[in-house]
Amino acid sequence: MARSTAQSKLRDRLCSIYKDILVVNNISLAEEVAKMLTVNYRHLIHACDTEVAKINVKQETPVDHGEIICFSIYSGSEADFGGGKSCIWVDVLDGGGKEILNKFAEFFQDSSIKKVWHNYSFDCHVIQNYGFKVSGFHADTMHMARLWDSSRRWVGGYSLEALTGDKGVMFGAKLDHEKDLIGKVSMTTIFGLQKLKKDGSMGKMITIDPVDVLQRDERIPWICYSVLDARSTLMLYESLKSHLSNMPWNLDGVPVLRKNMYDFYQQYWRPFGELLIKMESEGMLVDQLYLKEIEKVAKAEQEAAVNRFRKWASRYCPDAKYMNVGSDAQLRVLLFGGTLNRKNPVEAIPSERIFKTPNVDKVIEEGKKAPSKFRDIKLNSIGYNLNVEMYTPSGWPSVSGDALKVLAGKVSAEYDFIDACDMVLDDEDGNPSQSEVLPVEIDKSAYGTAFSAFPTEEEGKEACHAIAALCEVCSIDSLISNFILPLQGDNIAGKDHRVHCSININTETGRLSARRPNLQNQPALEKDRYKIRQAFIAAPGNSLIVADYGQLELRILAHLANCKSMLEAFEAGGDFHSRTAMNMYPYIREAVEKKEVLLEWHPQPGEEKPPVPLLKDAFASERRKAKMLNFSIAYGKTPVGLSKDWKVSVKEARRTVDLWYNDRKEVLKWQEERKKEACETQCVHTLLGRARRFPKIDPAFSYHKGHIERAAINTPVQGSAADVAMCAMLQISNNKKLKKLGWKLLLQVHDEVILEGPTESAEVAKAIVVECMSKPFNGKNFLKVGLSVDAKCAQNWYAAK
DNA sequence: ACGGGCCGCGCC
DNA sequence: AAAGGGCGCGGCCCGT
């Protein structure tokens, strides 16, 4: 173990702040200091930071997890806690545990004492784990930084270290970067130890002791490290406050008088941040027994499908019996061995390759006594050239579900293959092979592109069934490994058996994202073959309310572009996509006008079926295209992409796109304006005035330009929808009646919110939620378009959709 | 054993 | 030459 000289120097510099630190390591001192905070210095802004042990931040939620070992508070240089010391460091580990923490309860709980944090969610949860709620939240520098520049993800990111180390961010600080240590320094930089190699040189492996060990064994650097977090947070806050204050605030394109983006932060994102933490604390109740049940079913179905595929594949490649059908590398060799890389034709998929695979059959390899954990299998190509229609971004043939579906066609995955050894026996006996025995009545249209790659129809047919089975394996596998298993992980749930995902404001557009686990990507109803959403339940006596916006993004687009036709269509109500189709195709309009088809149908009492066909049935393909365009155009999809989806020429796709724009000229104009704005000002804005920045377009990369242009037309739509959803959530959360009835927000999925509360008030609450969402701006809706909201209550997420 | 790249895929 | 925006996450595989 060794320290580099650079590390030693940095540690020396770090320790120079020790003289400013009051170390609080006993109860009576804690009492004294806490009193100064809550009385003498209560008017100051305090940056706080905790250090936490016994938590695996990559896997666990801080709700009900983690132990605070120390915390630090910095209230600016004017505070003096004795002897000119301006920083407080409190030893929770050896200074009194929960008792010492309790001395600061009043400070943390006082709503009039302003506290700033970096990533407040984490600290808030770990402090709340000790039984007192944290109040007086003034700012989260992570969110402020995101609001100031949402595009740092790939260039620096939003860690305290990255932000405070960036001179472009810290411009407000009147400090000398060279002389004063103002930026956070990571734990690895200060405490990381490099293992020495045998020859005495520095190795690459860096180890780091657990934080509680550091606190005891590296006391002074550790104390300084911890305090520096609080100090740099306060300086970051000041800097970002200046930045945001210098950004004018435009609401729906109109300047908000004498207000700037710091005001925006305080008005919207600060309360929103606090709301998200509340939602994280609530968590969702998950029915573990139910998950166990569907896990069994899913695994059985998966195994059946795996066996079908392996049985077929082993005819062409004996070791395929043991292959991992979930490995894209193995599938690639088997199905596409010998194929060249499209981007780099020097590389090819090997026709034969050795893979390591779990030794399930306990095969004892040559020269070994006991079966090893893994063994080698040799996979080879099936030997027929399958048509490659889809490629991965790096140029290899794709083995994704979509690509496999093209190969398989629309055939059933249920098909019983005979064993490879049976085939061999038949051949050896000179008996007719299977293909000649079976009736050869084949409807070729159902089979995919794999069919014709094989020498006989029977072989082609079986290949399609086998690949269909493979598709099924993949889809079941993804349901099991992405949803069914993670939701049962014991690291996921808190003490209350509820799942507390973290809900983050961390996207470039302002949408939320969810992690550990991601509850925003649970299977949609149609694809949810195991009804996973049924596992999300309300507690006994409670119900869930699930409320979602109808065509939120399209409505936003209609508003932003001020598109007459779209606004009228929404005004008229009914099926928006049908109306789009009618406006695109004159013959559909004619049919509607002649009352040969109905735009939509509201059954009258006694009416069994509509008097004339519905548009969506009579012109199904036109409506499908219209619907697809409605969704695609806001994302910036091009005729080239659409031509692939629709399997038509680019020219044909372009004509259809033109039909869509025909009565929506304003949209085209608006999109051109956004592209121009992005190009000229490197910025576009959302409804509430949040900006998204873009880098200057580098003419050397035209793809770059395309991406920026698409993001420029999408961000105002997606971001404004996020703004609306946020406002709605704030309305819901501030609603006194809902609060009194005991209804709480649990989750947001972009245009959908989920609440839980007492069943007896579910209907009343539902009506309030709908009202809040329909009028999300302080009880009003200033948009040129109405907001439609659909809401249901039920015992679980599946039933409430 | 762990981290990162790649692929693929779930959602809106 | 490629051509839909925004996410998180799991498995595999290869590097250290």
TrEMBL record:
Catalytic activity: DNA(n) + a 2'-deoxyribonucleoside 5'-triphosphate = DNA(n+1) + diphosphate
Top EC group: transferase
EC code: 2.7.7.7
Gene3D superfamilies, A to Z: 3.30.70.370, 5' to 3' exonuclease, C-terminal subdomain, Ribonuclease H-like superfamily/Ribonuclease H
Gene Ontology MF, one: DNA binding
Swiss-Prot/TrEMBL keywords: DNA damage, DNA repair, DNA replication, DNA-binding, DNA-directed DNA polymerase, Exonuclease, Hydrolase, Nuclease, Nucleotidyltransferase, Transferase, Transit peptide
InterPro entries per the UniProt record, alphabetical: 3'-5'_exonuclease_dom, DNA-dir_DNA_pol_A_palm_dom, DNA/RNA_pol_sf, DNA_polymerase_A, RNaseH-like_sf, RNaseH_sf
SMART domains to which the protein is assigned, alphabetical: POLAc
GO process terms (BP): double-strand break repair; mitochondrial DNA replication; plastid DNA replication
Pfam families per UniProt: DNA_pol_A, DNA_pol_A_exo1
GO cellular component labels: chloroplast; mitochondrion
Similarity field: Belongs to the DNA polymerase type-A family.
UniProt-recorded name of the protein: DNA-directed DNA polymerase
High-level lineage: Eukaryota, Viridiplantae, Streptophyta, Embryophyta, Tracheophyta
